[in-house]
Amino acid sequence: MNWITLSLIYALTNAFYTTYNDKRNFNGYVLGIWRGFGITLLVLPLFIALPAANLPSSYFLILILQGLMIGVYDSHIFFASARFGGHASSGFMATTVLLTVFLWWTIDFSELAALFKNPPYLITLMLILSGFSISYWQMMKVRVSKQAESYLYPAVFALALMSIATRYIAIHGGSAYAGVIWYLSVSCFVSGLYNTVMFIFTPFSQSTPQTRHPKLKALTAPLYKGQGVWLIVLSITLITAKTLALREAQNPGYVIALLLTSPLISDSIEKKQIRLTPSALLTLTFLTLLVLLVS
């Protein structure tokens, strides 16, 4: 399964993921707790069965930092989904494409150096990236409020850094299988800890109905009809597809570029119909050209 197919699976699951809390309206930190600890518990037997590996301490540091970034990203996405709607959070995350591409070039300068040796290819790539960036903003400008933009900026940077960290985890964890398991067990556990701390020390808003144990009620709310279990399974699928795609792709930004389909998918989920505007078609055209160029 190549990185393009895996990236499309990532985009599809991301669309469901970012719209998950649109109508459920769970506390964002609670969903982060369920997601982080739930994934860890589910994959713990696979983690224990991993063969011993002499991994550098920097690898574990990246896993921990990844978990913290997941915590920031998850809570912002879940709160944004409940506050602004799934289309806002799904769509705005696609702005990380350019950020990830250029950030990766500063980290792995060898790729950019190779591109400079082929000016026509580099110019074509930059034109395509610029084209889809402009058409994307045209597509999204009437759909994301300024308030949503301000709230989601931390998640944008977190996703860009997470994508680069995921590539490192996937490549340097040994096998592809080991990289996925390390991510699902250690990083997700750390994200669960982050959300737990934030949940404990963040007071509920005044609009929250007063109950005898409001935080306990919020913490157990995802038990209803297996909502928490559904989130865990969806997240495992998303993370596995993303990690394997980032392991195979030349630049992590190309994988994130395919997230450009997520706002269209989430919009279709919300409105129960496929609606392609001229700017959306233009965006998809540039995305197709990008995939054809770098594949």
Polypeptide structure, described:
The longest helix has 28 residues, at 57-84. The chain is built from 14 helices and no strands. The radius of gyration is 19 Å and the shape is globular. The chain starts with a helix and ends with a helix. Helix 4 (86-92) runs antiparallel to helix 13. The protein is mainly α.
Short description:
This protein has 295 residues and is mainly α. It is built from 14 helices and no strands.
List descriptors:
0% strand, mainly alpha, 14 helices, 295 residues
What class do helices, strands and sheet pairing give?
Answer: mainly alpha
As a percent range, the share of strand residues is under 5%
Poorly predicted spans? none
Strand element count: 0
Number of helices: 14
SSE string, helices as H and strands as E: HHHHHHHHHHHHHH
**Head-to-tail CA distance between termini:** 13 Å
Query: Major beta sheet, specifics?
Result: none
Quick check: average pLDDT? 83
Radius of gyration: 19 Å
The global form is: globular
Into which percent range does the helicity of residues fall? over 70%
